[in-house]
Design a protein that fits this description.
It is built from 13 helices and ten strands. It has 360 residues and is of the alpha/beta class. It folds into two domains: 60 residues, Four Helix Bundle (Hemerythrin (Met), subunit A); 198 residues, Rossmann fold (3-Layer(aba) Sandwich). It has an eight-stranded mixed sheet with strand order 5-4-6-3-7-8-9-10, sandwiched between helices. Helix 4 runs antiparallel to helix 5 and helix 7 runs parallel beside helix 8. The N and C termini lie far apart (88 Å).
């Protein structure tokens, strides 16, 4: 037997600790290993965990300015390139890849089917045999389908022109109005803004910020007031002060039982009264919504006779193929596209560069 257990100060028995075991090791017989203290030289060699991650995240987001090269470089960087050109001959897989690339680019199933049916007929008629010729033929067809439309913003002499901006909330209507105002000022025309979205207080405030930013006048009414009255007041002020264009914002959603499309039709009728004339009704669509944009275009076109489309947010992951679907089904031209956040990043739609960007 060993030595008897010793009693602690509280009367409990404490197990015997052999004399050769140090006090600081009584809970474990293995010594604790401490990491070596880093020297200044080792600290300098230690790689940073933040720097590589920062550089990787910045690289894909680099954007070219609209004035350098093609303004569609950003779209091309994110477009789903097809590998059909790498195949030696045209086969079923080639057609499947073309179909997948177009659908992924938001062209839509119906428009894609129509395009490829026409392309198959052309392949037989012209004896196209290589994937390279096939892709080039598809490009040519797309450019022709987009080319005939008149994409200029319509302006008539002789009185205030009213350009109505319509679309659901969140697509960028107010921002687009500010950018268009800046463009028209650059072309030597005078502009006044009308805060026709009286159902959302933030809309009038945002439009007020843009009015100050681009140095133009703004007409706004009381929250929840009659949007038609706001637009008409802007037209009368434009007539009195010799202002060329009224850019009118409208609601994307109403907080009353009034139907949105009925309200927009009423605004248009009011804006058409002398001395005003509505020369543009621009539907603003968020390119990132894909085929939902086509649904929106159908709904608005039935009610307010849309004259052109503004496609926003093409600087992100959106492919923009919705432009083909809208023009193919509704024959409404894409007039402007938003490629970024700055005031200069709203540019005219270029069918040639748009199609090339889809296949980069």
């Amino acid at each position: 037997g060993g030595a008897p257990a010793r009693a602690s100060s509280r009367g409990r028995a404490r197990p015997h600790r052999p004399a050769h075991v140090p006090r600081h090791r009584r809970r474990s017989s293995r010594p604790r290993r401490r990491p070596p203290r880093p020297t200044p030289s080792s600290m300098k060699r230690r790689p940073s965990s933040k720097r590589p991650r920062l550089s990787r995240s910045r690289s894909p987001r680099r954007r070219s300015s609209p004035g350098s090269g093609t303004v569609w470089a950003r779209l091309a960087a994110s477009s789903p390139a097809t590998s059909a050109r790498s195949c030696p001959t045209i086969d079923d897989e080639t057609w499947d890849e073309l179909e997948e690339a177009l659908v992924r680019a938001d062209v839509g199933v119906a428009a894609t089917t129509a395009l490829l049916d026409d392309l198959r007929a052309r392949v037989k008629a012209e004896g196209i045999t290589t994937p390279e010729e096939l892709v080039q033929a598809l490009k040519d067809d797309l450019k022709k389908s987009l080319a005939p439309a008149d994409r200029g913003l319509r302006y008539e002499l002789g009185g205030p022109n009213v350009w109505l901006f319509v679309g659901v909330n969140g697509v960028g209507k107010t921002t687009t109005i500010g950018k268009v105002a800046n463009q028209q000022k650059g072309e030597g025309r005078s502009v006044i803004l009308a805060a026709g979205d009286t159902f959302r207080a933030a809309a009038a405030e945002q439009l007020d910020l843009w009015a100050h930013r681009v140095d133009v006048q703004l007409v706004r009414g009381a929250e929840g007031g009659d949007p038609g009255a706001v637009v008409f007041d802007a037209v009368e002020r434009a007539q009195a002060r010799g202002i060329d264009i009224v850019l009118a914002d409208t609601a994307g959603r109403l907080h009353t039982k009034t139907n949105l499309m009925e309200e927009l039709s009423k605004i248009r009728r009011v804006a058409e009264r002398e001395p005003g004339r509505v020369t543009e009704v621009l539907l603003v669509i968020d390119a990132t919504t894909g085929q939902n944009g086509l649904v929106q275009a159908r709904q608005f076109a039935e009610s307010v006779d849309v004259s052109g489309i503004v496609l926003t947010k093409l600087d992100g992951t959106a492919k923009g193929g919705i432009a083909l679907a809208i023009q193919n089904e509704l024959n409404i031209p894409i007039k402007l596209v938003g490629l970024g956040e700055t005031v200069e990043d709203l540019v005219e739609f270029d069918p040639e560069e748009f199609v090339e960007a889809l296949f980069e």
